[in-house]
Design a protein that fits this description.
With about 220 residues, the chain is of the alpha/beta class. It has 2 domains: about 120 residues, 3-Layer(aba) Sandwich (Rossmann fold), CATH 3.40.50.2300; about 100 residues, Orthogonal Bundle (Arc Repressor Mutant, subunit A). Helices cover about 45% and strands about 25% of the residues. The protein has 8 helices and 14 strands. The protein has a 5-stranded parallel β-sheet with strand order 2-1-3-6-7, with helices on both faces. A 4-stranded antiparallel β-sheet has the order 8-9-10-11, covered by helices on one side. Helix 6 packs across helix 7. It is elongated and about 55 Å long. The protein starts with a strand and ends with a strand.
């Protein structure tokens, strides 16, 4: 079952759309505004996001940018505005599709399935040893068994695997986590997330074989 983030401040629309999508087999988590949406994407991973552009406490562009900074999650904008400038701005921040309100629910379902298919075809697997990331599905497996990581743990692993065999400084990794969490990531916070990640993926977390420490500089993912 695909998990959908719905960011929409029209309560009645959100309720009706959530019920419809759930009846079609989708899991829907609703955020009423930008703040709630940013909190959710820092804590969970989603298969697709439906974002309204105009929100009471911000806008969908900021939410889209944060989503794309964390993972290649497809984003569809739902908006009453058919202004060309808004459309261009949406695609500039990484939107995958754009549908104007009012829309036909069946058309929305077709658009959602289309962007998911498109993403699955274009996103390669990332692997180090027995650890495999499927960016299209947002999943991580070890020896074929799925690991359940937080959004920030997943983002940290994704950045390391995308840059496999390359040294990534602590500053660079902190910036990557900051961009998705929306909050400053301290040196101690990075240590905590790295420790948690190693406990999940390494056979011996005290002697890591996949994520190596380069003393005084940072970390890199390597083939064990």
């Amino acid at each position: 079952m695909s998990k959908i983030l719905l960011c929409e401040d029209d309560t009645e629309l959100a309720k009706n759309l959530s019920m419809f999508l759930q009846s079609e087999g989708w899991q829907v988590i609703h955020a009423e505004g930008q703040t709630a949406a940013l909190r959710l994407i820092a804590a969970e991973r989603f298969d697709l996001a439906l974002l309204d552009i105009s929100l009471r406490d911000g806008n969908g562009f900021s939410v889209c940018a944060a989503i794309k900074a964390g993972a290649d999650t497809p984003v569809i904008f739902l908006t009453a505005s058919d202004d060309e400038a808004c459309t261009v701005a949406g695609f500039d921040v990484g939107a995958d599709d754009y549908i104007s309100k009012p829309f036909r629910p069946r058309e929305l379902i077709a658009r959602m399935k289309n962007v998911l298919r498109r993403q699955q075809k274009s996103t390669p697997m990332l692997q180090c040893g027995s650890i495999v990331i499927d960016p299209a599905r947002g999943t991580v497996t070890k020896n074929g068994t799925e690991l359940f990581l937080s959004a920030l743990e997943y983002r940290l692993l994704l950045v390391l695997f995308t840059n496999k065999e390359q040294l990534l400084t602590r500053d660079r990794l902190a910036e990557e986590l900051w961009s998705i969490s929306g909050e400053f990531v301290s040196d101690n916070t990075l240590n905590v997330y790295m420790k948690r990640l190693r406990e999940r993926i390494e056979d011996d977390p005290k002697n890591p074989a996949v994520i190596k420490t380069v003393r005084g500089l940072g970390y890199k993912a390597v083939e064990p």
